[in-house]
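Morning run. Coffee first, then this:
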Amino acid sequence: MSINPWLQRVCINDKKMNQISVSKRKLPPVVVISLVDSDVRRAHITQQLRDAGVPFRFFDAERIREYPPEYDAATRLRLYANHLTLGEVGCYDSHYRIWQDLARSNDDIWCVLEDDIELTPNFPERLASALDVSVPWGVMRLKDGGSAGCWQVGQLPGGAILNDHRKQPGGTQAYLIRRDAALTLLAYGKRMVHPVDDMLNRNWEHGIRMISMAPDIVLDRGDDLGTTITGRQKAKRSISQKLRREFHMGRDSLSRYVDVWRRRFLVPARRWD
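And here it is:
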């Protein structure tokens, strides 16, 4: 995906965002996605992170007014017979450009947050402990709402559980991502077909190991702060379009189950004392 010059606000120009020491433990660089005019949301998340003593920077998201060239309308319509909303396109664009920034950096891990979350009291400590995880992973969700069929792959000091999932958590409110995973997603996600969280969760295609930490270390406050993504209207599909959509969704479900069995048999759980 190309970067429009007018969208380049917060590129780091190959400079390393140094890890920050909190209580003698390291935190990854923290990036918060927020629309430039979302004053209430920005005040909310700023207060949360300052109270927790977590340094961060904003990524200035933009409201997308028209579909970009990267949006693959033909494939989207063929598979689902409806379009992504411009809000979904904007969300995808923000996360994709953050992955581009990470790929240009010298850092191994970044923490990506959206501005409608609430931090749990032990957020800094739990975030720091995630850096000590030895089980292989590329993306670690810090909130596992919407998941199904989870199984434990690790346990950290303090009782935090690391889970893999048959159905990965929904949303992109809070996650850790490694640089090599970002590079993979940049290649895989060049064409915009799915909402960003759906694209992220298609791990049977892109091959990134995805896990989550439980209990959640962030809470969703989107209902209190109001959504910035307009809902998609129900599509009016013909019989053939409905059948085609059900076929693709069934194929995805089968692929997901096959990949789950591969991961469960090939990647044993690990425990840290």
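The CA atoms of residues 19 and 125 lie 14 Å apart. Good start to the day.
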